[in-house]
Amino acid sequence: MNFKALMLILLTVVCAYNLFLQIISYLSKNNPTPENVKDLYDAETYKKWRAYHGETSRIGILSTLGSYVLYFAVIALNVLPKVGTSANPYVSMICVVLLFFTLDALVSGVFNYIYTMKIDEKYGFNKSTMKTFLLDQVKSYVVSLVICMGLTSLLILIYEHMGDWVLVLFSGIMVAFLFIVMFLYPFFSRLYNKFTPLEEGELKDKLTALLEKNGYKVRAIQVMDASKRTTRSNAYFSGYGKTKTIVLFDTLIAAMTPDEIVAVFTHELGHGLHKDVLKNSVISIVQMVALVLIAWLTVRTESIYPDFGFAGRNYGLALILVLISEFPLLSPVFSIIAGAVSRRAEYRADAQAVKEGYGEALISGLKKLSRDNLADLAPSPIEVALTYSHPTLSQRISAIEKAMK
Ligand SMILES: [Zn+2]
User: Fold this and answer.
1) DSSP per residue, 128-163
2) CA 20 to 30 Å from 386, out of 87, 94, 200, 353?
3) 83 alpha carbon to ligand 1 midpoint, in Å?
4) What local confidence, expressed as pLDDT, does residue 125 receive?
């Protein structure tokens, strides 16, 4: 079997699947709007939504095709072996990864630019200046490069010394890594944003009372300066145990009444009480182990490398194959399962808000959130089942209304 031909076929399958999703999404803009969310957009906004949805779908499709052409060309034309000639496995890995990630960043950078600075700008979502945008792109590029090269170096070190034991050891390291990233997430987000404690007042009093009533401890309630980048709003928990912090976007505070914010917050509290973050982590761990398994299979199958024009094993190529075709082939399976689990958790978190007496406020809060984010009101059910982490607004409102009776 020629692995290069196989990989180009897998790459094509992955691209076709992504295109299928994007085309379904594009076509769904003509779906009729459900009754209970008909009042969300006025005629003008609805027209704006359809135009926005159309433009982002089109750029999404072009972006998928752009990456596909790049990946296909790089592999088909044996570009990577030209730089991966060093006998030192670390050096040849770094050269290959550096070249590939740079090409990838340039291509996806163009589409990110159109998406953020052109389309979002045109519809009034974008708050990034050209400087913030470029800095964000460079930071993401550097962070992903450092993480991928660091992990691959670790894989080389273990595999060269311990052989197949890498599977056990590396799985452990990846799981530990996952937890470390989650613990460090608050630190990472400080690279991009400023956090300030929520000021005293009605909102803070209500939130604190709610936490006390449920016996739930957090270290702080903080406001994040999301308005620097976007007009979209959100709230989330970050950290574990004693470092647990609640983060509210400043855009959320600006757009909603205190009751609506408390309702959104109660929803987040519902997630906390049901340990939903932990459940998501379990799915992530299984996914991580699957990732290590295919990486190990790729690394140990030595006959792969000559097919791609390399003299011997190249860990950089192994990483790239895993990232662009093998894992994307497997990940839809996980996203279908994780999506179903997560949508159930969303209903339960909404029910928590109803239980605390914030059902009405949650409905109006969710409507505001969806309106501000120009949410899709009538996505295709196939798209929801395959990719959505949240039920649609209409589904959530129906469930909240049912729970309030
Ligand atoms: Zn939620």
Assistant:
1) --HHHHHHHHHHHHHHHHHHHHHHHHHHHHHHHHHG
2) 353
3) 46
4) 81
The enclosing H or E element of 300 equals helix 276-300
Contacts (Cβ under 8 Å, ≥6 apart) of 49: 41, 374, 377
Residue 93 gets the label, from left (phi > 0), alpha (psi -120 to 50) or beta, of: alpha
Distance CA 81, CA 320 (A): 13
Length of the chain, please?
405
Q: In the CATH scheme, what architecture does the domain 195-273 have?
A: 2-Layer Sandwich (3.30)
Report domain extents, the chain.
3-189+275-404, 195-273
Rounded distance, CA 364 to CA 254, Å? Answer: 15
* 268 alpha carbon – ligand 1 mean position (Å): 6
For 297-322, how does the pLDDT look when each residue is reduced to its tens digit (9 = 90+)?
999 999 999 999 999 999 999 999 99
Q: What percent of the chain has pLDDT over 90?
A: 59
The pTM assigned to this predicted structure is 0.79
Distance 227 CA to ligand 1 centre (A): 21
- From ligand 1's centre to the CA of 234, what distance in Å? 10
Retrieve residue 360's tokens. Answer: 């009405």
